[in-house]
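Page 47, continued from p. 46.
Same chain as before, 475 aa.
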Amino acid sequence: MLNMAEGLARLGALAEAPVSAALARAFADAGYELAIVGGPVRDALLGRRVNDLDYTTNARPDDILRIVKPLSTATWDIGRAFGTIGAKVRGEQVEITTYRADSYDGTTRKPTVEFGDTLEQDLVRRDFTVNAMALRIPGPSLVDPTGGVEDLVGESLRTPTDPDVSFGDDPLRMLRAARFASQLGMDVHPATLEAMTRLAPSLSIVSPERVQGELVKLLATDAPDRGIRLLVDTGLMELFLPEVPALRLEVDEHHHHKDVYEHSLTVLAQAIDLEKKRHPGAAPDVTLRLAALLHDIGKPATRKLEPGGAVSFHHHDVKGARMARKRLQALKFDGATTDAVCQLIEQHLRFFGYAEGAWTDSAVRRYVRDAGEQLERLHILTRADVTTRNKRKAGRLRSAYDDIETRIAQLAEQEQLEAMRPALDGNRIQEVLGIRPGREVGEAYRFLLDIRLDEGVVEPEVAEQRLRDWWAARA
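Result:
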């Protein structure tokens, strides 16, 4: 809950920070205004950690550069067209932007940039009232023309102007609403929510890259399920990730199965909890979280109603991986992220065979080999995928996975499991068999790798003899 007295004290500390004080003096001496704006003001009032400070001013970009150069060790003007100048001042990276009055024309994907003349004008054009507050410096004084403080108190997310106008200016703000709802734990104001539902189709003018960026930011929050539900309920998710709302499968009176949509959100939440416990202080693992959200998207396409009321989803792991690849590519995710997510989806069921009966060492090695660099994420995803309310079953699965992780650790210590290579490399294979590079070398390498997986470490001399025997039998 917002404590206004404490919040104002934190705002005062922001204004008195060395970088803010130095910039405030420089801009005032040059005859210009300066204010800390947006997220830092909001987070200071809420008592949340403030990372980067954003500043706004009535100075134009050339004037900003002229003022900050004497204070900075470096400057950059890559955002000059949008009125933004970056600088490194007293060891901290800052961005200073000219008051804006930009808007979108409703058909293109880029804003028309117009510089504004007043701080209030700049604030009113921002996305939500809680982000439309500023702290004038020096002074300092809080500027809140749209009621952001009241909305912080009421935990309400609302646009500063008519939501039709705000979302018409930039439809991506509808996705930001979902992100801030999760990040700040707020409810979307009814009028804003209604506009999101009605204007959802306008998201089509926004580039896939910008949509992907907001999805990543949402998944990086501590509780993204709140925002995901909002996107599904308003119809926005249908426009860029339809596989998620499709998880809401109908259940009839004769065939019963777990609610796949609710299950997926629970898996996502449990994966985040495990991620934090196993890697405290690490950055949010968006790749893992994407895999958790999408791990069952193959179920709607593979659902089969069996006699007696059972429901099956055979090969939904393979189907889901293919679907995920197509969707992530459409959203312009990079290849490494796409490959990792799809691999996790395809392999997320592998462990459950272990739970039915202990694997041989060979099977454990193959599990590690197939998971590769995704092994730790697969550990977390597989554990998170247990959402049964049957405590005995959940305990049995948890114990089984404890066991497989212990065996992996033991084998790794004994056999250098992470270096899962055969005893002979390609060059030695060619020397032993007297052959040139080609298909046969690859076949021989796979033969030796199978020995490594089935039997563990073998001595090079033994490997050479078995290779010769295999080659002779093959011939």
